[in-house]
Specification:
Elements: H1 2-21, E1 24-28, E2 33-35, E3 40-47, E4 63-67, E5 72-80, E6 83-98, E7 102-106, E8 110-113, E9 116-119, E10 123-128, E11 136-142, E12 145-148, E13 153-162, E14 165-166, E15 171-172, H2 175-179, H3 192-196, E16 201-208, E17 214-226, E18 232-233, E19 241-253, E20 261-273, E21 280-283, E22 301-308, E23 311-313, E24 317-326, H4 346-349, E25 352-353, E26 361-364, E27 367-376, E28 383-384, E29 388-393, E30 398-403, E31 407-408, E32 410-412, H5 419-423, H6 463-490, H7 492-511, H8 518-527, H9 537-551, H10 559-570
Parallel strand pairs: 2-10, 12-21, 23-32
Antiparallel strand pairs: 1-3, 3-6, 4-6, 5-6, 7-10, 8-9, 11-13, 13-17, 14-15, 16-17, 18-21, 19-20, 22-24, 24-27, 25-27, 26-27, 28-31, 29-30
Helix pairs in contact: 7-8, 7-10, 8-9, 9-10
């Protein structure tokens, strides 16, 4: 017994240690050489860390440090030989930009995760002068200045590469060959996805080098759109373009049956272009003139609302479907678009109960759809009033509001049910017919004839005979009764009966005591009655009165008493 307990504890400790040791904090920075002014990427990787604290980077001599917004996360679950293993990873990216030449030291960094300290190793970066040349240039143009939160930032990257001509071999490299000279460690920031998708355009132009010599350039142009997530200065990932620009070409004769020559770059020069990102400030729409129901939309939109159903009783739900379509030109991003706050529209809230929670929507193309439910507070309401949707026009720098047309509806009052209605009429009497029977002459013995009627049929009874005859049926009866009781206690019928008894008891209690949530509790208890009552007209009217009291605000002082009268007759 002790040995078994020892092994159990040992296995438990081993599993615990395994889970603890699976937590890691790693620093990914493969570069050993950098250039003045060229950002170096440093990624802090959290593995199986449960805390949400983001790592921070201390000041490091010789570097300026910026952090990319957001976090890259991933998770994985594996199932091997009946064992489930889960892992999660989060990556936090920093950019360290060298400010001077020489060997710069990145000290051992300490990160706290899940209450434990993890330390990286020290590393030395050799920083050299940035190689530049007139053969490679880059610029970023587009949105410049201030934008409002919700507006897109349109940017264009142009890369100028001088066409290389080898006069000795009389060979000119084309646009594809010149673009292939860009090294893999080039960073394109927000333009990365567009380049990977092949959305770059190229044209050939004539110009002059920095020395004033006429030359042919290939201009590679790619466009991208950024969507600010916070106000303040917009930070975009830096762009640095590195090229192994050819200085001479050579031919290599291929061996084999077909032979032939292949061309390769014999000598090259490392050059770098660093385009500046325009300074952009992200603003919040002003407070002055902002409508109460405004939720942050910026741009030009259309607003449509549909209601279903349009004929209801007091307190019954009406579904509103709101569709907001972006009518501005250019790309759209509706992920951050919110529905207007209808609970702040007085014309609607005075006659309807309106939810005050934010709504989630679905995006299809340039349209985002939201759904919500409202409930009429009183009978006689004839329409859903005109509803507003406001947006901020960044060109005119003012708010614009669109109003829908009113939607006609019909709201009925809830019928009041009296105690006599709940009890109902007297069940009809059923007439019983009497069946006449004919007596057989001579009684039951008239069926038997013969001398054997004179023989004695008496059996000698003994205690053992009585026990042997009575015991098996008695045991079987007990067993069958036990099984029956067990099945009945677990059957749906038994559960339903229990719920009904509990519901009736609840309503009896509510009829004699006041409760702020009386209508809600009465409705819950009435719905707990069995399925046969779902078609009962009196029960339906009671539930409608509960909805009217709960959602429409109508006071119904006799609701609990009438419900009690109903369940008494129903029981």
């Amino acid at each position: 017994m002790r040995m078994k307990l020892f092994f159990t504890i040992a296995i438990t400790l081993a599993l615990f240690v395994s889970n603890v040791s699976s937590q890691e904090v790693l620093v990914d920075m493969p570069q050993q050489q950098g250039y003045v002014g060229i950002p170096l990427r440093l990624v802090v990787v959290y593995k199986n860390v449960t805390t949400d604290n983001e790592p921070s980077m201390p000041a490091i001599d010789g570097f300026t440090i910026t952090k990319r917004g957001g976090t890259e996360t991933s998770s994985q679950t594996t199932f091997i030989n009946g064992k489930v293993t889960s892992s999660s990873t989060s990556k936090h990216t920093f950019f360290l930009t060298p400010q001077r030449l020489g060997e710069l030291t990145i000290p051992a960094l300490t990160f706290i995760a899940d209450g434990k300290a993890f330390q990286s190793s020290e590393r030395v970066i050799r920083v050299i002068e940035t190689p530049t040349s007139g053969a490679l240039k880059a610029e970023i143009t587009g949105t410049n200045g201030d934008v409002y939160l919700g507006q897109p930032v349109d940017l264009t990257l142009r890369i100028f590469i001088e066409q290389y001509v080898d006069k000795a071999l009389n060979i000119e490299l084309d646009a594809n060959n010149m673009f292939s000279t860009l090294r893999a460690n080039s960073t394109f920031g927000v333009f990365t996805e567009a380049l990977q998708d092949g959305r770059a355009q190229v044209q050939q132009v004539r110009g002059t080098t920095t020395e004033g010599i006429p030359a042919t350039f290939f201009v590679y142009e790619v466009q991208a759109t950024a969507w600010p997530e916070t106000t303040g200065s917009l930070f975009l990932d830096p762009v640095s373009i590195v090229s192994e620009y050819p200085l001479s070409l050579a031919q290599r004769r291929s061996t084999g049956f077909f032979g032939g020559d292949s061309l390769f770059i014999d000598q090259s020069q490392l050059i770098i272009a660093l385009p500046e990102v325009p300074a952009i400030t992200v603003l919040t729409p002003p407070e002055q003139g902002r409508p109460d129901w405004y939720t942050g939309a910026v741009g030009s939109f259309t607003f449509r609302v549909a209601a279903q159903p349009t004929e209801v009783n007091v307190g019954e739900p009406i579904t509103l479907t709101m569709r907001i379509t972006d009518t501005s030109s250019g790309p759209v991003n509706l992920d951050y678009l919110s529905a207007p706050s209808l609970d702040r529209v007085p014309a609607l809230t005075q006659s309807f109960k309106v939810p005050d929670k934010p709504l989630g929507g679905t995006v299809q193309g340039r349209t985002k759809t939201f759904t919500t439910t409202i409930r009429a507070r009183k009978a006689g309401v004839t329409e859903i009033p005109a509803l507003p949707m406001s947006s901020f026009n960044p060109t005119a720098e003012q708010f614009e509001t669109m109003w829908t047309n009113p939607i006609p509806i019909t709201v009925h009052a809830v019928d009041t049910v009296t105690a006599s209605d709940l009890i109902g009429g007297t069940p009809s009497q059923t007439e019983h017919s009497t069946e006449h029977q004919t007596e057989v002459a001579g009684g039951i013995l008239a069926n038997y004839i013969g001398d054997d009627l004179l023989l004695s049929q008496t059996t000698e009874w003994s205690p053992s005979l009585l026990a042997s005859i009575a015991l098996p049926p008695f045991a079987c009866s007990c067993l069958a009764f036990g099984i029956f009781i067990r099945k009945q206690s677990r059957s749906e019928v038994a559960v339903t009966k229990y719920k009904r008894r509990k519901a009736i008891k609840t309503i009896r209690t509510l009829a004699t005591s006041g409760n702020a949530n009386q209508a809600q509790q009465v409705a819950k208890a009435l719905r707990a009655l069995d399925s046969e009552s779902s078609s009962n007209a009196e029960l339906t009217k009671l539930l409608q009165r509960c909805d009217a009291s709960q959602f429409g605000g109508a006071k119904d002082i006799t609701l609990a008493q009438d419900a009690n009268e109903f369940v008494e007759s129903y029981a």
